[in-house]
Amino acid sequence: MPTLDDLRCGTVGALDISIGCGFEFDVPVATHAVVIVEPHVEEEHRVSGAELVTDPPLVSSTYLDLFDNRCRRMTFPAGPLELRFAATVHDDGQADVVDADAPELPPSDLPDDALNFLLPSRYCQSDVIAPFAFEQFGSVPPGWTRANTITEWVHDRIGFDYGAASPSATASDVLEAGHGVCRDFAHLAIALCRAINLPARYVFGYLPDIAVPDPGMPMDFCAWMEVYLGDRWYTFDPRNHQHRIGRTVIARGRDAADVAMVTTFGGVTLRRMTVTAEQMS
Length: 281
What we know:
By secondary structure, this protein is α+β, with helices and mostly antiparallel strands. It folds into two domains: 15-92 and 262-279, Immunoglobulin-like; 98-258, C8orf32 fold, CATH 3.10.620. It is 18% helix and 34% strand. The strands form four sheets. It has a four-stranded antiparallel beta sheet with strand order 3-6-1-14, with no helix packed on it. Helix 3 packs across helix 6 (182-195) and helix 5 (171-177) packs across helix 6 (182-195). The longest helix has 14 residues, at 144-157. It is globular and about 55 Å long.
């Protein structure tokens, strides 16, 4: 089993990271949409030069949802549409926080907002996989060790496969199929955590490949989870099983249903999507 030091990506000093994304749509008729691609409000102090543009230009407005995610509303006109977002993130170069002594709290001691993340959700059916979770992880020491063991188990047992991904796959489906993409890894790990009374929430954002080998794949959005231990939330990454540098949170929720990048209230075809997250020279 790798040690915590093996999983840390270390530090590289303060740096700037270029983040962004682009979408190309075909829109048959005017269609209202909600877009979530801009950094979470908690990231505002790290972000500069943020700009979201569309071609053709559109009027938009923003609001914060129940999880303080920045949601942008607009109406896509009929025809081809391009949407682009770009910003610079000023990062301290530190890897995700690690605390091997972080304790697990009983449900009676959890704050209200953390307690909500023990409940089953659309893609994280913790009630369905509870028997498996207790059999597999019930005897693991509680706290950080248990959360990390679940993360490692999902990372080791689930195969990454773009071709087999399904937007309707639940944690139970992923457990049975044994493959998926990063959102599936996160959903399964979250469901396993919740099943044994570890509050866990879904996160997606921009994750550059800093201080890690080049994965040899096009950049994409990344999904991971946060687990509540002690008095705070900690990042765990079932897909990569590494404590990485430069994560920028876009949105948090119960699962992916709460944080769709683009929600359209009508039929729209996505022709192309690109994602950028890279250290600036």
